[in-house]
Amino acid sequence: MPMTIHKFAVLEDQEWIFPVDDDDFETFFAMDGRIIQDWAPPAMRLVETDEGADQPSYSDFPWLGEHAPILKKPAMEALLPVLTQYGQLLPLKGESVWLLNVTTVLDALDKEKSRIVYFDDGDILDIERHVFKMDIIGTTEIFKLPRRSSAVYVTGSFVDKVRSAGLRGVAFAPVWTSEDG
């Protein structure tokens, strides 16, 4: 049976959430899969729309980025067993939301077959075409790659759990299917 790997994707009218202090963006970019022991939760705010613009649609996953899933209480409660298997749920201040700090890091990207754009120093800038190593992923449902600010990758079985729970305002972009090679 083929496996599909997805990453979180933003919806056109999805709620967004940002740190109150712009310096706290670094907290989210610096997450590299390590367990955080001394968590100092940043204050967050859901983004208001400009006057005259349509209000964003409710989201159980307000958007901060593909590297830092933020969950409201319905999502956290519905997915708690699977989330805690692959990471930490860390509370945030200012809104009733949690950050999923994914602590499952897999060196599962086939760098020879993937199409990768590198910085001059050799770090990965972007992955234009993903090819994963199935034997490394196994039955893992949520993981990051061993790089700073890696996207959070999820399998089709996790996407099915989100859909079955009736959670709203969340999207996933398929990046690779095992049939693709």
Briefly say what this structure is.
With 181 residues, this protein is α+β, with helices and mostly antiparallel strands.
Outline the secondary-structure elements.
Elements: E1 4-9, E2 17-19, H1 25-29, E3 44-46, E4 70-72, H2 73-86, E5 87-91, E6 97-102, E7 115-118, E8 124-129, H3 134-137, E9 142-144, E10 152-155, H4 156-164, E11 171-177
Antiparallel strand pairs: 1-10, 1-11, 2-3, 4-6, 5-6, 7-8, 9-10
Distance between the termini: 13 Å
User: What is the total domain count?
Assistant: 1
Strand content: 25-35%
SSE order in H/E notation?
EEHEEHEEEEHEEHE
How would you describe the overall organization of this protein?
This protein is an alpha+beta fold. The protein is built from four helices and eleven strands. The chain has helices at residues 25-29, 73-86, 134-137, 156-164, and strands at 4-9, 17-19, 44-46, 70-72, 87-91, 97-102, 115-118, 124-129, 142-144, 152-155, 171-177. The relative contact order is 0.26.
Key attributes of the depicted protein:
4 helices, three-stranded antiparallel β-sheet, 18% helix, single chain, four-stranded antiparallel β-sheet, 28% strand, alpha+beta, 181 residues, globular
